[in-house]
Amino acid sequence: MKIIITGSLGNISKPLAKALIKEGHQITVIASSSERKSEIENLGAQAAIGSVNDVVFLTQTFKGADAVYCMIPRANYFDPNLDLDAFTRTIGNNYAEAISKSGVKRVVFLSSIGAHLEQGSGIIQRYNEIEAVLNRLSDVSITFMRPTSFYYNLLAYIPMIKNQGIIAANYGADQLIPWVSPNDIAEAIAEELTTPLDGKKLRYVASEEVTGDQTAKILGDVIGNSDLKWKLISDEETLNGLIAVGMQPKIAQGLVEMYAALYSGLLGEDYYRNRPAVLGKTKLADYAKEFASIFNQN
């Protein structure tokens, strides 16, 4: 198959590209920086250098493809001038237009847990909107991948662990957190891209469900702090902490709302109704080794 991958060589896109190349597919990876070109080609893929903000570029790149994987690039939450809603909405609309104009018939879109919510989901609310836009595309078969909480988000707590000896947040603690590895997401996406589909489909991906307290214990053991605790704090405390480290206040508010929805169960209600029959291979104890390596570098 001829498959287009967005997301350059990111946490999901790189293992996805490698898996599909190994299966013998013809892969093109879209990247915004020409510096990635040689690395992409060294994997055995073609590089398409351009921006997902350029609908003409996307349309031309998508033409003739058997399948396309679309994702929203990560944004800089510390940029005071970033309009995250507009950033996300624009790219989602660009994908819809490029899919329609290029004639591609099989798409996998990286959405999110909580995308079923029209409100109350904080910074991921736009995914509900993008799913609706893509759902309106006729004669296009789309899988909406809804991963849970990414393991690597735990890296943001390294300074707090080092300075305060705790993980403090307005979620977790005694409540379950469904964590997921990018490698498990990539494996699921590869399966969807190469499997025929007629219509639209939702697929959740998770690797392990553990409480915040269990998460802290697993991480603490590998970094030599067996007493590491996960402390539940208020929404206000969480917001003030994010703003104090330089995060844009509006985005910080959106993160706090998302975390609160996770703790209350609102964010995960549809996940638990449609949870995957089999969880991913990469458990938190596996990821913890990578976490410890990064923790000890800083």
Automatic annotation (TrEMBL):
SUPFAM superfamilies: NAD(P)-binding Rossmann-fold domains. InterPro entries: Ergot_Alk_Oxidoreductase, NAD(P)-bd_dom_sf, NmrA-like. Residues 2-259 form the NmrA-like domain. Gene3D superfamilies: NAD(P)-binding Rossmann-like Domain (3.40.50.720), UDP-galactose 4-epimerase, domain 1 (3.90.25.10). This is NmrA family NAD(P)-binding protein. It comes from Flavobacterium ginsengisoli.
